Amino acid sequence: MKLSALILSSMALLCAAPLRAGVANPDISVIGQLLYKYHDDRTAEGARRPTLDLGETELVFDASLNPYAKGTFVFTAGEDGAGVEEAYLDVIKGLPDGLALRGGKYRQGFGKLNPVHPHAYPFIEAPRVLAAMLPGEDGFNDVGTRVSYFLPVGWASELSADFLKGGAFHPDETKPAAGGAAHWNNSLVLGETVPLDIGFSAAQGKNSVQWGKRTAVYGADIKTKIPLTNFTNLTLQGEYFYNHSDVVVDTTTGVSRRMGRQGFYAFADLKFAQRWNAGVIYDQYASAGNEHRTDRAVKVFAGFSLLEETTLLRLSAEHFKPENSPAVRTMMLQVLFSMGPHKAHQF
Amino acid sequence: MKKYLIAGLLFLPVIIPAHAAPLKVAAALPDLGSIAAYIGGDKVEVFSIGRNNGNPHAVEVLPSYMIKVSRAAVYLKVGLALDQWSDAIIDGARNNKLITADCSAGITPLQKPAGKVDASMGDVHPDGNPHYWLDPANGAVIAGNVLAALKKADPANAEYYELNCARFKAELARRAAGWKAALAGLAGQSVISYHSSWIYFTTAFGLTIAGSVEPLPGIPPTAKHLAELVDIIRKDHITMLLQEAYFPDGAPQFLARQTGIMVFKLTPSCGSVKADSYLAHFDEIVSKLSGR
């Protein structure tokens, strides 16, 4: 509540403050995400009745701090409360060529989906495998410092390393224990028009500071977008994860067991008209609680851009089958509405 | 003697200056790149981020663009808030030595909105319509901006660039006179455009835009709006519709069926960054419109 008041008062101050020479207000964007949901999971709240949720409202401020650095703040507010999702500065100039620095709280560059805010996905929710495999309660998001560098090779290749506070690995503990992450992305353009990204990621941190137990996650990702006509295209994307953890099974003695789990998702998204897209996503993974249990989900989705990009409608239907448990079906309709400057579309 | 020969060979690369590598120039659109290629000649190597078959308002930023721009000496922006994606590419390129030129500097923008601009007006550009390269007179202004950037990046060849820039302007003026003569018969006529890309072109050649398929910039047509356009086309006897090649055919074809209007599917940008491409693009548009 206090944070919401702080955000509102900051906005009021920004709008009211007279401009000094050379100083301008930051870009401000607000994104609303209205969500209608129906599911038949009797173990969860709201089964077999449609619910309407405001979802997370996102407030983004970003601007140049000086000729060398940019700052970004992302605040989220929803029925569960408000918080700082991201707050970081990027040093983009003044360092040796090809080098960049980021510091603050930010979504880690692990794979393709995790660094992206969910409203920028072509579907409503991230595939379940991400939550099952990556650290963090709402995406792999931690306080840290990132160094990234363009490798001097014949294709577009970037290596980044994150030095993390490590809190995403042990959200229930207050005592800190550092973690780390790395990502290597390679971008090619096939035949001048088909981009292809191939990446590899790794992250490591302590899942129990008290007992010194570790989690390591490794990943590989691939993405391409095939243009079909001047305004239609097909996006194909997939990620593979391997999570290797020492999990404490007795909290009084710290006895642990080693657990190795793997999972993946793959989706195809067809933009078949100027304002329409539709696709299918499949994900499969070993459950976080039991590596011998394989959960599977298949989801079909469609999107319609009502006018430009400021108002989007998204529909999805998911069939989720946890092993040895009844299937859960979920239907969702999301209305995304945004105001503020249009940002560049990132591949 | 042999020792001296070996020593001489070792120092050869120092004594004989290596052939200078061409200056890498990144252009937001092929039109700017083509002008840079004309002025830069064999001293530059030009590449374009945007393509002529894509919507220049919505270029997707690929990591490979950032790497290419990280190795460039000059970046030519369109400006007037058309290519905000250029800023993401430039920031992502982390190139301390990059010289960025806004090619809209010195252009007199058309359709600059008065007062407050917001999304209820569609995708309006607060600084004015950004499709300025479609007026040949603005081609000369772009050339001046490109020249300044090349001279700054490579002062040793300033004279060479100045000479080529003068040649480009002379060639542009000569061919513009021909384009005006070829389109003289259409002067005073009204046309329909799909998006607001053509205002500089029509103004330069004495045509008038009586309406657009988009009711507001960037906003898809509604049935009601198309019905209004049918009335305008019939009432004013409009015979030409200029459609950007990257927009869907549905609405223009509907208008063609209803009114018999001729649809000219054109790309607002030239096809490549070759030195003659910017000029050849006008040749192509003029030929299509005048030879109908």
Describe what you observe in this structure:
- The complex is a heterodimer of chains A (347) and B (292).
- Chain A has 347 residues and is mainly beta.
- Chain A is 6% helix and 58% strand.
- A 16-stranded antiparallel beta barrel of chain A has the order 1-3-4-5-6-7-8-9-10-11-12-13-14-15-16-17.
- In chain A, strand 14 and strand 15 (294-307) form a beta hairpin.
- The two termini of chain A are 36 Å apart.
- Chain B folds into 2 domains: 23-106 and 123-180, Rossmann fold; 184-290, Rossmann fold, CATH 3.40.50.1980.
- The longest helix of chain B has 26 residues, at 158-183.
- Chain B is globular, with a radius of gyration of 22 Å.
- The interface between A and B is large, with 39 and 36 residues.
Radius of gyration of chain B: 22 Å
Task: Give the topology string of chain B: H per helix, E per strand.
Answer: HEHEEHEHEHHEHEHEHEH
In the CATH scheme, the class of the largest domain in chain B would be: Alpha Beta
| Shape label of chain A | globular
How many strand units of chain A? 18
Percent of residues in helices of chain B: 40-55%
The CATH topology name of chain A reads Porin
Distance between the termini of chain B: 77 Å
According to CATH, the fold-level topology of the largest domain in chain B is Rossmann fold
- State the CATH superfamily name of chain A: Porin
Strand content of chain A: over 45%
Radius of gyration of chain A: 21 Å
Q: What structural category characterises the helix and strand content of chain A?
A: mainly beta
Task: Give a quick summary of the entry.
The complex is a heterodimer of chains A (347) and B (292). By secondary structure, chain A is mainly beta. Chain A has helices at 2-16, 128-133; strands at residues 27-39, 51-53, 57-64, 69-78, 81-91, 99-107, 141-150, 156-164, 179-190, 194-208, 213-227, 233-250, 255-273, 276-286, 294-307, 311-321, 328-339, 345-346.
Write the layout of secondary structure elements.
The complex is a heterodimer of chains A (347) and B (292).
Chain A: H1 2-16, E1 27-39, E2 51-53, E3 57-64, E4 69-78, E5 81-91, E6 99-107, H2 128-133, E7 141-150, E8 156-164, E9 179-190, E10 194-208, E11 213-227, E12 233-250, E13 255-273, E14 276-286, E15 294-307, E16 311-321, E17 328-339, E18 345-346
Antiparallel strand pairs in A: 1-2, 1-3, 1-17, 3-4, 4-5, 5-6, 6-7, 7-8, 8-9, 9-10, 10-11, 11-12, 12-13, 13-14, 14-15, 15-16, 16-17
Chain B: H1 2-15, E1 23-27, H2 30-40, E2 44-48, E3 60-61, H3 63-70, E4 74-77, H4 84-93, E5 99-102, H5 136-153, H6 158-183, E6 190-193, H7 199-204, E7 208-212, H8 223-236, E8 240-244, H9 250-259, E9 262-266, H10 277-290
Parallel strand pairs in B: 1-2, 1-4, 4-5, 6-7, 6-8, 8-9
